[in-house]
């Protein structure tokens, strides 16, 4: 299992800061907060990168439109898909600013992403206990998804992995190419097609 580096703070923007123009009550989620404080909006064309693995992680993104794919490469240069990001998801190369990104993040389709400075955003979050709570909840969901995927590879067969994908990404089945889904599941496109046919028959 992966440990979650939760944030802690002893102060609240609402109680201790008079020079801010917002309160944590304005934001229903971490995504809403990051989007509000985003510096600019970028258009990322299909197959263009948002983040490169190994580059210093300086930005947080909120996807307004489109799908991005996180992936790494093995020693033979083969891509291994690790996650997909859809509308309203937070997208970044890591969970902390100013360290190398652990993944490549590339557009599957044309995307629009609101981008915020990672370090500045975290400094704002650290000033408010409610925002810290929301951020930690978001981290919890991210790590839960990572851990469940690792568990699925250990304990589930190909059909069960596909059912896991449908559960975790219910609206992406017709938007993500089959070869990326198969790659994410650790099976071949032919196996994926066979599984889909079997499910239709049932």
Give a structural overview.
With 202 residues, the protein is an alpha+beta fold. 39% of the residues lie in helices and 20% in strands. The chain is built from 7 helices and 8 strands. The protein has helices spanning 13-16, 30-36, 118-125, 129-155, 158-168, 178-185, 189-201, and strands at residues 40-44, 49-51, 59-65, 68-73, 79-85, 90-91, 104-107, 111-117. It has a 4-stranded antiparallel sheet. The chain is globular. The two termini are 35 Å apart.
Sequence of strands across the biggest β-sheet: 1-8-3-6
Average pLDDT for all residues: 80
N-to-C order of helices and strands:
HHEEEEEEEEHHHHH
N- to C-terminal separation? 35 Å
Cα-atom Rg, whole angstroms? 18 Å
Helix count, per DSSP?
Answer: 7
The biggest beta sheet is recorded as: 4 strands, antiparallel
Structural class designation: alpha+beta
**Global outline:** globular
Roughly how much helix do the residues carry, as a percent range?
25-40%
Q: Spans of 5+ residues with little confidence (pLDDT < 50)? A: 1-22
- Overall strand count: 8
Strand content: 15-25%
Any key phrases for this structure?
202 residues; four-stranded antiparallel beta sheet; alpha+beta; 7 helices
Quick synopsis:
With 202 residues, this protein is of the alpha+beta class.
Topology at a glance:
Layout lengths: L12 H4 L13 H7 L3 E5 L4 E3 L7 E7 L2 E6 L5 E7 L4 E2 L12 E4 L3 E7 H8 L3 H27 L2 H11 L9 H8 L3 H13 L1
Antiparallel strand pairs: 1-8, 2-7, 3-6, 3-8, 4-5, 4-7
Helix pairs in contact: 4-5, 6-7
